[in-house]
Fold this sequence. Notes:
This protein is α/β, with parallel strands linked by helices. The strands form 7 sheets. An 8-stranded parallel beta barrel has the order 1-2-5-11-12-13-14-17. A 6-stranded antiparallel beta sheet has the order 18-19-20-25-22-23, with helices on one face. It contains 22 helices and 25 strands. It is globular. Helix 1 packs antiparallel against helix 12, helix 14 runs antiparallel to helix 15 and helix 20 packs parallel to helix 22.
Amino acid sequence: xxxxxxxxxxxxxxxxxxxxxxxxxxxxxxxxxxxxxxxxxxxxxxxxxxxxxxxxxxxxxxxxxxxxxxxxxxxxxxxxxxxxxxxxxxxxxxxxxxxxxxxxxxxxxxxxxxxxxxxxxxxxxxxxxxxxxxxxxxxxxxxxxxxxxxxxxxxxxxxxxxxxxxxxxxxxxxxxxxxxxxxxxxxxxxxxxxxxxxxxxxxxxxxxxxxxxxxxxxxxxxxxxxxxxxxxxxxxxxxxxxxxxxxxxxxxxxxxxxxxxxxxxxxxxxxxxxxxxxxxxxxxxxxxxxxxxxxxxxxxxxxxxxxxxxxxxxxxxxxxxxxxxxxxxxxxxxxxxxxxxxxxxxxxxxxxxxxxxxxxxxxxxxxxxxxxxxxxxxxxxxxxxxxxxxxxxxxxxxxxxxxxxxxxxxxxxxxxxxxxxxxxxxxxxxxxxxxxxxxxxxxxxxxxxxxxxxxxxxxxxxxxxxxxxxxxxxxxxxxxxxxxxxxxxxxxxxxxxxxxxxxxxxxxxxxxxxxxxxxxxxxxxxxxxxxxxxxxxxxxxxxxxxxxxxxxxxxxxxxxxxxxxxxxxxxxxxxxxxxxxxxxxxxxxxxxxxxxxxxxxxxxxxxxxxxxxx
Length: 614
């Protein structure tokens, strides 16, 4: 009876979206009804193989489509091998993850990829297979089942733009099979590639210049936007879209709750354009959303769109025709570290004002650090009014965070440094960038470094959206320099902050007054407070507050009968915030102290979460 009920619900959803899905597909593929019918078959087949517990979870979430928008979700991103060796190891460490108050785990790329040319797992050679050293698809499914029994959601990457050149499709293309060459962009000479190069920017101009690679084995050029071993998929071929939708639904059916669509702005190519953010991309993402709404309505789409918050908005779609459920708040992460180096919060305040004026339906993922580098994609026209030119300011930031600026407390390394332009990106763990590494080497104040780390986490947790912690940050893990001796990793400085999770270090979280205990308990306290007060919900009204000091960021959250004033001192000096609210006594949720919100002394790298209930 239950299965019959779910079958009816599937058919109802299919009929609801059929006309729009057909229209979008036929517009993209010039009325290729044969291909469209094949897509519909794939959807139904994948629905039929979806397990009963997942269908029940779909039904539960469909009744509360805002289940992810409250103040309960807290994420952690981790590499399976670095964190626990393999998928079985992660399963055994779920108690620790729950101790971290985490109920959303982003497992970094774990599908099969070549041993060396893998771009950290983003060069997939088999979408149906887990890397053997990490486990099997069956073990991934078992982990998902265990997570669901604990109320934990799983997020996994789906690399849309390209495959590894070791993928079966690429191998068959290399063997001369025209059918599979049409899965990619193959050209006999540089005529058309040369036209593309006139308008398409380079992603890695220093380490991987150009957008095409010559393969003498087939005497052809192949489009390779990112690295020569990552071949761009040709979504103008409907077979590619159908195959990739089959792959993502197969992955979802293992129990994945959130699909992170990697590099989504790049997936459609068109001569005469920059091949970024084209209208066809939005058609595909909208179709992907519809396909999930029909087959697995409890699953969320997370878009990786590396642009300013106001520029990524189109990837949310519209209220009537939504696309991604969530997007990364990428530039806020970079701007936050800019404020750490400059002790000036004005650009962060300006950016938060933009975010706060967006519709509350838009959900961002907020983070301090992630697996990737920090790119300085700041609002330089805004910074110019304060005398901060782009080239000189980027140099200052990179010098500061690599410890090459006098008085700097940070320890980091550059990634993709371009000596000609002076441009570069930054790598390093939160703790090392905050000065904990230098402090442990007795060249900086340890308590001050811990306080900065704590303050930044407090700031991240007060933003609207879903906070995500990078594994190891909760115990202040430092840079891992051993990658310099690893032949497979030494050319990629991002491995500086991708080191193995140090379980011996984590054990110190139980030692009173250790760095690990102070951070783990301090951040944990903040996380629990956030989950207990409705003022932290996504639906709250949020705005910034003038504090009278360019080093102090003020954020106000108001929801129902609760009002929160959060103050963050980004400088190493004691400061006073002049905010003059004159509306009664507030209680600091962190310390328990009561005070009026007028002239508030904020210690160096200090933070207050001041709450008042009407």
